[in-house]
Every structure is written in structure tokens, then in C-alpha cells.
């Protein structure tokens, strides 16, 4: 799933997906300056909790979630 956040006309993207290499899952977020941050875990629930914590931190910093979420993909 992909989420978008906006603050002062600048966008940030957050994505949760199956790991690009090996097993497990990845939480990625790309900051407006182009830096890509990746957290990996074998536990989808743990990563979901980290995504929620990230979203809360972003909201506290003035970011607003915009648009809609992409449809969820089934992880294998």
C-alpha cells in the first residue's frame, strides 16, 4: 500500500510492500529531498505498527495524509 503526505505544498511518500530481496516486508518512505528510508521485518504486524508510529510522527510535524490508499496487496 502507498500513502502520500503533504506539508506546505511538498509531498512525502510512504509504502509498505513485500521485501524486494528475500522474505519479509519493507516499510519505505521517501522524503522531499529524495532520501529513501527502508525498514525491513519478517513480521507484517510489527511493520504495520511501525508504519502507524511513523504516520503519527508525521502528523505531529504538520504533515497531512492526502489522497486515498492504494488497494491492499495480498502478501505471500
What do you see in this structure?
This protein starts with a strand and ends in a 10-residue tail after the last strand. The radius of gyration is 12 Å and the shape is globular. A five-stranded antiparallel β-sheet has the order 4-3-2-1-5, with helices on one face. The protein has one domain (2-66). It has one helix at residues 44-60, and strands at residues 2-7, 10-18, 25-30, 36-41, 64-66. The model has no long low-confidence stretch (mean pLDDT 87). With 76 residues, it is of the alpha+beta class.
For this entry, give a set of tags:
single chain, 76 residues, alpha+beta, five-stranded antiparallel beta sheet, 5 strands, 39% strand, globular
End-to-end CA span = 15 Å
The overall pLDDT, averaged over residues, is 87
Q: Pairing-aware structural class of the strands and helices?
A: alpha+beta
Major beta sheet summary: 5 strands, antiparallel
Query: Considering DSSP H and I runs of 4 or more, what fraction of the residues is helical?
Result: 10-25%
* Alpha plus pi helix count: 1
**Shape designation:** globular
Main sheet strand line-up: 4-3-2-1-5
Which stretches of 5+ consecutive residues score pLDDT under 50?
A: none
The radius of gyration over CA amounts to: 12 Å
Total count of strands: 5
SSE string:
EEEEHE
Count of discrete structural domains? 1
Strand % is 35-45%
Amino acid at each position: 500500500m502507498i500513502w502520500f503526505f503533504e506539508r506546505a505544498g511538498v509531498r512525502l511518500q510512504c509504502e509498505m510492500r513485500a521485501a524486494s530481496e528475500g522474505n519479509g516486508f519493507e516499510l519505505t518512505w521517501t522524503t522531499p529531498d529524495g532520501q529513501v528510508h527502508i525498514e525491513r521485518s519478517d513480521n507484517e504486524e510489527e511493520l504495520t505498527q511501525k508504519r502507524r508510529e511513523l504516520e503519527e510522527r508525521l502528523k505531529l510535524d504538520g504533515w497531512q495524509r492526502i489522497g486515498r490508499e492504494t488497494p491492499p496487496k495480498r502478501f505471500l
